[in-house]
Amino acid sequence: MRAQVTKNTVVTLKYNVTNPEGEVVDAGREALVYLHGGYDDIFPKIEEALHEKRVGETVVVKLQPDEAFGEYDASLVQVEPRKQFPKELEVGMQFEGGPENSEDEDDFVIYRVTEIADGKVVLDGNHPLAGTALVFTCTITATRPASAEEIAHGHVHGEEDEEATRH
Predict the structure, then answer these.
(1) Could you tell me the CA-to-CA distances from 38 to 78, 89, 133 in Å, in that order?
(2) Is pTM, for the whole model, over 0.90?
């Protein structure tokens, strides 16, 4: 009998992600390993679809933007003077900063440089896939019971070092 995906199971998935038109967003070149059971290691709708499935089973889950990386938030786009940035600057670079409208000093956003022109730099704090519906296709390739330490910490430890048991 093949092990079932239940709470406190470490699950290894072979996966890929496309947009609704079928264009590949993430080819899933490396396996995804997560701790199952509400630890926020994977999107909740995907975790729900995998619950009680077994090694070898495949699920296809369609995620709306609010179930994945959120809706696009135009307030997270900022235009700053070029002179505030290092000499070596290119589109795609990332910087950490606080959102303009936050009072919380611990709040921070990762901003991506999306454009450099006319002495200005456009920074976007949205996830690159914000506002995008996604289709997540995954096959369970392995499961194993989580260790007490993994459960206590709420995430998988040493997935590179440990080979999950195939049942």
Answers:
(1) 34, 39, 22
(2) no
